[in-house]
Amino acid sequence: MTAEIAEQPAVLGRLAGRHAEFLDQIRAALPEPLAGTALLARGSSDNVAVYGRYLIELTSRRPAGLAAPSLHTRYGADADYGGYLVVALSQSGATPEIVQAASAMRRSGAVVVAITNEPDSPLARACQVTLPTGAGPELAVPATKTVTAQMLAIVAVAAAFDPGVVSAADLAALPAAVERVVADDAPARALASRWERAGRLVVTGRGMAYAAALETALKIKESARVHAEGLSSADLLHGPIAALDDGLPVLIVAGGERLAADEAELAARLARIGVPAATCGPAPGADLPLPEAGEILLPVLATVRGQQLALAAALRRGLDPDAPAGLAKVTATH
């Protein structure tokens, strides 16, 4: 994981250079008129799909949602996808149910776009358009560079509807911002030390940050064998907060200016009930500090910090973060 985390500035720099190319590919393929967008994925790619759902509904002004692969592979769903854009995400491009569902949705009238690290994969062959992330071989089982690469590719999909969703300046600055995070893992090591005895924790965020919270929780589960639950901070208040106590830490992932008041209110409420909390964001004093990046790209930086935290937590527990027990790089769900 260490080496692949360190590769992310270069990977994202290459992808940022292809942003306009990807945007044009999507624009040329879009259904007219667009009925909506469905995102199809599993695992870490599913967390990227959550990010994409927010971005694409915001920019397309049409409904965007997550598709359920088993509806096609187990229930034989035959929905009409005429007028739909389907974005299928898979690092390997080889997960059988994703390939099968993408093929079924294409037959049902959708324009299907693959975002994958393997441009010659079964998924790429099943789709009309492929956006190759070009992250290079990823050997550690927990995905890192392929995740943030998918995130930047999904930004290009969203930008096909509204190019102004992310500025050229923010895109150009992203690799250097990620480099700053990668170059200083001391905050992640310090938080992993502080929470070393925690057998469970919650990672929470709202809006664009929700995806980063989900992905951070997954990485901690995979790498450190700690039961980490990713929750929308709004959902956290709708019941789960009752299960929190002084032995269940909460990491709050910042989502930008529009959510700052919500995050401050949540932190204050957690403090009142004695729940240990930490923050990941650009505000002064954050436990896991981030450079400023704009609210659209901030989740990419938060995802990298989450990778560092998972890695540090695994190493403190004497675990091999690259090869978690019981996991394989490609999970063949059907």
UniProtKB/TrEMBL annotation:
GO terms for molecular function: carbohydrate derivative binding. Residues 26-167, 191-324 form the SIS domain. It comes from the Bacteria. InterPro entries: GlmS/AgaS_SIS, GlmS/FrlB_SIS, SIS_dom, SIS_dom_sf. GO terms for biological process: carbohydrate derivative metabolic process. The keyword Ribonucleoprotein does not apply. Keywords: Repeat. PANTHER family: AMINOTRANSFERASE-RELATED, GLUCOSAMINE--FRUCTOSE-6-PHOSPHATE AMINOTRANSFERASE, ISOMERIZING. This is SIS domain-containing protein.
